[in-house]
Design brief:
By secondary structure, the chain is an alpha/beta fold. Helix content is 36%, strand content 14%. The protein has 10 helices and 13 strands. A 5-stranded mixed β-sheet has the order 2-8-7-6-5, with helices on both faces. Strands 9-10-13-12 form a 4-stranded antiparallel β-sheet, covered by helices on one side. The radius of gyration is 21 Å and the shape is globular.
Amino acid sequence: MKKWEENVRKVVPYTPGEQPKEQNLIKLNTNENPYPPSPKVAQALQEMTIDCMRLYPDPSAHLLVSAIADFYGLKEEQVFVGVGSDDVLAMVFMTFFNSKKPILFPDITYSFYDVWADMLRIPYETVPLREDFTICAKDYCRENGGIIFPNPNAPTGVELPLAEIEAIIQANPDVIVVVDEAYVDFGAESALPLIEKYDNVLVVQTFSKSRGMAGMRIGYAMANPVLIKYLNDVKYSFNSYTMDQTTIALGKAAVEDRAYLEETVHKVVETREWTKRELSRLGFVFGDSKANFIFAAHKTCPAAELFAALRKANIIVRYFNKPRIDNYLRITIGTQKEMEAFVAFVEKYLSER
């Protein structure tokens, strides 16, 4: 090893879901929305002028912040935006998780949390989920330097009831509690009302799932103005111009189309519930997902085997070769037609193996 390598910040990076180059795939592996963004997004894109590209974007992203605040009935100073919720969460880790005490998050959860903690040298402890993959609120009632968890959890899709979230917050008044709500629009109850009741709560959401804009990269946090100011202080010390002109304009158009959001979510939820019934009929077991995916295991067919068979048939799902979950597949909800093709293949495969 060369001497200079002693001072390199070495981390094991997050592994994102596969983004294949092949055509004619049924892509059910990265929890993308199967439907396009609101038509108002396309209209906003057409109305943009090329001349604006020579100017720096508004560092405060005022138009987008204002639209998000209006949508949720908040003040603008209660909203922070970033380049995807990953960017927002990274800022949260840098801003609030600076204690020598370990932060807490579930052992089965979004696998970027431990990457950020390792990169930023933040001590952490993982809290085991129960056998049924639910979070036990009492396990977070101990000394810590901060708490973060998704709700619904990923990759399980299981919701933690709002009363239990509040119990965690009440037990931890001296640290920041972050509720990562990337999938909340698909049927879970948001913790957003709690930001008015507690000054140590951050709720993080994204445009990547329910609004169908994963390719645009828009995430946001909502909290009391003091927490939002601290986040902006770090953002402006790191990179003032994190969000470009196009993203701001198209994000504003998307968030203003409430009817389209509700219509799209309804279609995804209907297809999810249909898929649950079909998977149950075929011998799968799974929790009651409130997200746009199902985390399922078959009673007799190993997940690795089924994952490989699906991949060979140009159907991609997500497989995690990790302890406790290595016999589960995470299946994103696609269009009704895509899920019918997925179910038909699985039924045929199981009958012939």
